[in-house]
Automatic annotation (TrEMBL):
It catalyses: S-ubiquitinyl-[E2 ubiquitin-conjugating enzyme]-L-cysteine + [acceptor protein]-L-lysine = [E2 ubiquitin-conjugating enzyme]-L-cysteine + N(6)-ubiquitinyl-[acceptor protein]-L-lysine. Residues 21-56 form the RING-type domain. InterPro entries: B30.2/SPRY, B30.2/SPRY_sf, Butyrophylin_SPRY, ConA-like_dom_sf, COS_domain, E3_ligase_FN3/SPRY, FN3_dom, FN3_sf. Residues 195-237 form the B box-type domain. Interacts with CENPH. One of its GO terms (cellular component) is cytosol. Keywords: Coiled coil, Cytoplasm, Cytoplasmic vesicle, Cytoskeleton, Metal-binding, Repeat, Transferase, Ubl conjugation pathway, Zinc, Zinc-finger. One of its GO terms (biological process) is spindle organization. Belongs to the TRIM/RBCC family. Residues 484-709 form the B30.2/SPRY domain. This is RING-type E3 ubiquitin transferase.
Amino acid sequence: MEGDGSDALVTIKNIERELICPACKELFTHPLILPCQHSICHKCVKELLLTHDDSCNEVGSDNSNQSSPRLRLPSPSMDKIDRINRPGWKRSSLTTKTTTFPCPGCEHHVDLGDRGISGLFRNFTLESIVERYRQAARAATAIMCDLCKPPPQESTKSCMDCSASYCNECFKIYHPWGTVKAQHEYVGPTTNFRPKILMCPEHETERINMYCELCRRPVCHLCKLGGNHSNHRVTTMSSAYKTLKEKLSKDIDYLIGKESQVKSQISELNLLMKETECNGERAKEEAITHFEKLFEILEERKSSVLKAIDASKKLRLDKFQTQMEEYQGLLENNGLVGYAQEVLKETDQSCFVQTAKQLHLRIQKATESLKSFRPAAQTSFEDYVVNTSKQTELLGELSFFSSGIDVPEINEEQSKVYNNALINWHHPEKDKADSYILEYRKINRDDEMLSWNEIEVCGTSKVISELENNSIYAFRVRAYKGSICSPCSRELVLHTPPAPVFSFLFDEKCGYNNEHLLLNLRRDRVESRAGFNLLLAAERIQVGYYTSLDYIIGDVGITKGKHFWAFRVEPYSYLVKAGVASSDKLQEWLRSPRDAVSPRYEQDSGHDSGSEDTSFDSSQPFTLVTIGMKKFFIPKSPTSSNEPENRILPMPTSIGIFLDYDKGRVSFYDMDHMKCLYERQVDCSHTMYPAFALMGSGGIQLEEPISAKYLEYQGDM
């Protein structure tokens, strides 16, 4: 028995890695089971929700993507925690709250739904194992009686019904014979108290008695009868228990039976590690040898070039020195002039003529050199500038021999940037590559290149977060097969949005006309259908009236800061208006009759009827641009050409809107190139909302924030 206890102690200590929370990196405390089946501490779920909420969705945040769910934050306030725990907690019309966050274990986004944390099961089994581990780790640390007067005695048993530990005397006092408490369940001393029966989080008075095979979670009979699992396949709890226990036992027996094989593989791995160590050092030595050869060649070329420059410099200086000496000889009382003056003193004609002839030739030569001065050599060394551009490019591409591994190609059409960057690439030899290295770096405005950041990726796509707003980034990728890598792909340059991405959905209540507009369940897409209602309203066209626009707005308002959002207009759309509008202007629009309105006489109708040019100089509480028939229409402006060919642009695939609330300015962007198409002042004295309007057939799709769910979800969760 002692040997068995020792083995159990060794076993419980060896599983510490399985008992660590992936968020706080500490032993689990009251672990909860997420929809993806990973467990996480109760307090960590709260912090992740608050962190993700503050970093991505809080209204007025100028820097909403600075935080990371993996960072430990100060303890949140109790009112925020209570608000998250409260059933039905969701976003309001003025503030953005979320129940979605990335799981720290698999990085897959999980949605807790309307019930939030209260809808998650507590992992009592894991909690019990953690408690046994703690007891094994502290071994000699005793659990004291909870009811003793100081000093407390060591407890001998714990009551699962009372959730307390007792010494022998206190247990007899508080659990006397012949009372109900005498029937309580008691176990050895423990600090882990768990309920006898698991209750349903959805129906708190119902016990768990079934197992949903689709959702892979326990449910009650009310969940099956009329709840979220009514159409799911369920089985009895006893059947699920038996099936899962048989599978788990079978797999455990298989692993135990393969112990010798595992030990052999561990030995093989140790040999491979040693071999890798040796091969790595050998590869380093070979690389150093190759670089030393390059250094020798460069040193040789450097010495040759410097000698040539020195020789040319010496030759030119000698020529300048000779020329300078000649000119110095022309100076008064020096050299040739002084000698000529002495010759002029000769009175004997024969002697004078004999000497003066040669002297005259020299004087004439010096005179001519004065009349046409020209330096004896050039000062420029332009012919000696070393051209290393080609060699620099080749050295920049210096890499390991590819050994037949093709270069990956980044797919520009499937790669984009929004709140995060999504990079997709194609590799012809995908099956032959073990992994990829995705590199990215920021390009400063003065074209200064910063160092590359590297990320190892197993697939052919990756989401990169925490990029700076209004910045330019370059991306490239290379493939690895063992220690051999391919050359880098061609760089892809992307421009991030000018401000943090603003998260909102279409409001299905405020001004939404369900007779004309069709909103999908996710509330991120709206369509306008040209049906009988439009035909009936068109009768008023005979008297010079048009049918009105159907408005729809975002469910979150803006009261401060810089925000950016994007959307796509369907190519078949006839007329779409998009922009921003204040809360008071929206109330005015949505209270007015909607059957028939003349846009010529209602300035705020949103039609391009001439109202823009009459009120352009004044700051209005709204700005809407017109999109339709595959065109983007620039509103009229007194400072630019109003010719149709200058105001009508091809409709971008995706359109972005940037609102600077504090400066009262709104801008419209072509998302494909992150280029500003139009901007103007807007009155932001009230809460501003994303506003849209449609007439005739049309459709608007909000851009979905880029997250890990863009990638193929690996593994069976």
